[in-house]
Amino acid sequence: MTQILSSYIGGVWQAPRDEGTTLLDAATGAPVARISTKPVDYAAVLGHARNIGGPALRELNFQERAGLLTALAKHLSGLIPDFTELSLRTGATRRDATVDIDGGIGTLFVYGGKGAKELPAGKILLDGEYEQLGKGGTFGLQHISVPRLGAAVQINAFNFPVWGMLEKLAPALLAGAPSVVKPASQTAYLTEMVVRAIIDSQILPEGALQLVCGRPDGLLDQLTGQDSLSVTGSRDTAAALRRHPVIASNSVRFTAEADSLNSSILAEDVKAGDPEFDIFVKGLVTEMTQKAGQKCTAIRRAFVPAGLMDAVQDAVVAQLAKITVGNPADESTRMGALASQRQRTDVRAAVATLMSAARPVFGDPQTVPENFGVDADFEAGAFISPVLLRADDPDREEVHAVEAFGPVSTLLPYEGIEQALDYVARGQGSLVTSIVTGDDDFATRAVLGSAPWHGRLLVVNADNAAENSGHGSAMPHAVHGGPGRAGGGEELAGLRSVQHHLQRTAVQGSPDFLARLGGGEEGA
Ligand code: NAP
């Protein structure tokens, strides 16, 4: 029998007592590990975070905590080859693994660097300027931010077992909040490997990080107003957790990143053969195939001027036809497998729903993909073809509502920018939209019209294409999250996310005292 994943709780690795459920290699179907189907003692976990991890982190100042992040990033960088090998078992190619693993470690580096450069060597963060309140100048106000006293509980999705953990962990550590990480079961073995490396390094103080490989039942019941809960996952999960009575009644800080019908808009000024045309096509193919389309930011809806639909379709199909699907370990494979058979079933079902409103112009989710690797087993692995759909009636509700969490996108025609913006908004709130145009007036109107619906917009043209960070890349500097359907949460955005773990307090008093608070040993 394969090994069962342990949880790191209360300062020790604890092996569960049940047999658990077996997690399978996404590409071969071979067992990789088992994971417990039982909850752990959450009172002990949260107590350890609040009483051991929190105080230890708060002993350090912002600069010192930034130093921990940089040290951790350096340490993990040396282990990338080991993490990558295990990552292949999630169905990800080596190139996909860089997005998850190198991307996660890069996020730690950015937070370490920003913390060192922009945060004080003190324990209080000043927020804004001193404001005089009394006419005589003896009384005023200074807003400050200090670490909260609870645990930062982080529930992650299966598709980014490393980045998903590290992008939540970095701002929490910088703020001084101890983290309790619950990875998604399907790929928890990779998260566990990285957590083992972090714990073994002894870089973090004890209690700053705990890992739960097991069911979350009972976890939320014990959260208080000093704790926070951040969840990445499906819309249903996010909604269920948001509705939990303890979250509401204890005002637990809550943030969710849920599913999202992200878009890309090809502007009306673009003609076939223009650089922007190629940029749009290339961006779409990348987003469809990287991580087999299992990215929360992937383009699901591609809006094209009606007159260009055929040209875009031909160009995208030509590129998809070159995508080799197969064993993620094979260097010639461009697209690996979905994370599990369950995901394949879900993607097939979503495509079937989408096909009531759109027709496939490339790929069949049920059959062996074109260019399928000789050493891959289509039935044993969770392989699927990229699927390009075309909806000639973009008013159909399904195309704006159904997220197929795999290598699936739909081409949609529009006439006039107002119509394009109306369709984009029908996603009810998304993580990201790309606007591909050489026309700054189009771009300005598109930004103004679509920004209320998004956490991030990417405006790409021939001049910036070579350096652009990519539609799907959640850069640590930029907001990751989105309104409405996307969960209503906000992560990353540089040091802004550190504030999620701090309490902002207005301190009123005499100017001398407030100046000392900010500038003294404890302050900025
Ligand atoms: P999921 O089934 O919603 O699970 C997400 C996480 O929530 C997992 O860790 C899961 O644990 C946990 N969970 C489920 N029910 C729970 C409960 N009642 N209490 C506490 N935790 C619970 O989603 P998934 O299949 O892992 O991920 C796919 C979805 O995530 C897609 O829809 C995708 O759009 C979305 N996603 C969004 C983002 C983003 O940043 N916006 C990023 C990645 C993915 P188990 O795995 O143990 O069940």
Main sheet strand line-up:
14-15-16-13-12-17-18
Main CATH class of the largest domain: Alpha Beta
Main sheet overview: 7 strands, mixed
* Assembly state (oligomeric): single chain
**Unique ligands:** NADP nicotinamide-adenine-dinucleotide phosphate
Which band does the percent of strand residues land in? 15-25%
What's the alpha carbon Rg, rounded to whole Å?
A: 24 Å
The strand count comes to 21
On the 0 to 100 scale, the average pLDDT is 96
The CATH architecture name of the largest domain reads 3-Layer(aba) Sandwich
CATH fold group of the largest domain: Aldehyde Dehydrogenase, Chain A, domain 1
Flag low-confidence runs: none
Walk me through the structure.
The protein has 524 residues and is α/β, with parallel strands linked by helices. It folds into two domains: 7-258 and 490-518, 3-Layer(aba) Sandwich (Aldehyde Dehydrogenase, Chain A, domain 1), CATH 3.40.605.10; 262-477, Aldehyde Dehydrogenase, Chain A, domain 2, CATH 3.40.309. The chain is 35% helix and 20% strand. It contains 15 helices and 21 strands. The protein has helices at residues 42-58, 62-77, 80-87, 94-118, 163-175, 188-201, 235-243, 245-249, 275-289, 309-320, 341-354, 398-401, 417-425, 440-450, 511-519, and strands at residues 7-9, 12-14, 21-24, 31-35, 125-132, 140-147, 152-155, 179-182, 209-211, 228-232, 253-257, 263-266, 301-305, 359-362, 387-390, 408-414, 430-436, 454-460, 479-482, 489-492, 502-509. The strands form six sheets. A seven-stranded mixed β-sheet has the order 14-15-16-13-12-17-18, with helices on both faces. A five-stranded parallel β-sheet has the order 9-8-7-10-11, sandwiched between helices. Strand 8, helix 6 and strand 9 (209-211) form a beta-alpha-beta unit. The protein is globular and about 70 Å long. The termini are far apart. The model has no long low-confidence stretch (mean pLDDT 96). The structure holds NADP nicotinamide-adenine-dinucleotide phosphate (NAP).
